[in-house]
Amino acid sequence: MESDRLKNEVARRLPSGRYQHVLRVMETAMILADRFGENKEKAETAALLHDVAKAMPKEELKRITEAEGDPAAVLEFHHELWHGPAGAVIARDEFGIRDPDILAAVRFHTTGRAGMSRLEKIIYIADMIEPGRDFPGAGNLRAEAERSLDAALTACSAHNLQYLASVRAAIHPDTLRCYNDSLSLGKGALNR
Ligand SMILES: [Fe+2]
Ligand SMILES: [Fe+2]
């Protein structure tokens, strides 16, 4: 699907504030793709689709995820996590996306996972550092993303873990694995 049609179709499915976030993630992802040698078209498509399921009712997200067998047991965790896996199903079935890397980038953009591809890292990070994000520490994450994708991945997943623990939320195993794996990439503070 070409870019304008894709944008219109995504815009139709999201409240305007969420769609504006998606456009900022797209711009950020394309900058990161340029910086770190990823295909910009793939970054654009994955970013445009990453939150495609975000506005769907919980029951619908659950139905879609269950139909896939819920391989990551995401339904056992907070419903905030459900739109990633469900979004990948929608990208595949309703947008005809066949590229497994784009589908994984959509699926894992909230939890992360061990062994993320460059594209997956870009979408995960862009989602957190797009210019509309103003949580404390966002500037640090942006600074890491200026120099190294793996350092930014460590910083972003560490931020997520700290946040989840601070609000006493359960931590999905893929989130923990993403953090641990990012340290083994050699960019963790203790490995420097
Ligand atoms: Fe999301
Ligand atoms: Fe997002």
List the helices and strands and how they pair.
Blueprint lengths: L2 H11 L2 H21 L3 H10 L8 H10 L15 H11 L6 H8 L10 H12 L8 H10 L1 H18 L6 H15 L5
Helix pairs in contact: 1-3, 2-3, 2-7, 3-6, 3-7, 4-5, 5-6, 6-7, 7-9, 8-9, 9-10
The structure holds fe (ii) ion (2 copies).
The site of one fe (ii) ion has 6 residues, from loops.
Summarize the structure.
The chain is an all-alpha fold and 192 residues long.
**What are the secondary-structure elements, in order, as H or E?**
HHHHHHHHHH
Can you identify the CATH class? Mainly Alpha
What radius of gyration results from the CA coordinates?
16 Å
CATH architecture group name: Orthogonal Bundle
The CATH topology is given as Hypothetical protein af1432
Distance between the ends: 43 Å
Mean pLDDT: 95
CATH superfamily assignment? Hypothetical protein af1432
Helix amount, in percent? 55-70%
List the ligand species.
fe (ii) ion
- Poorly predicted ranges (pLDDT <50, ≥5 residues)? none
Task: Give the total of domains.
Answer: 1
Largest sheet data = none
* Share of residues in strands: under 5%
Number of strands: 0
Return the structural class.
Answer: mainly alpha
Shape descriptor: globular
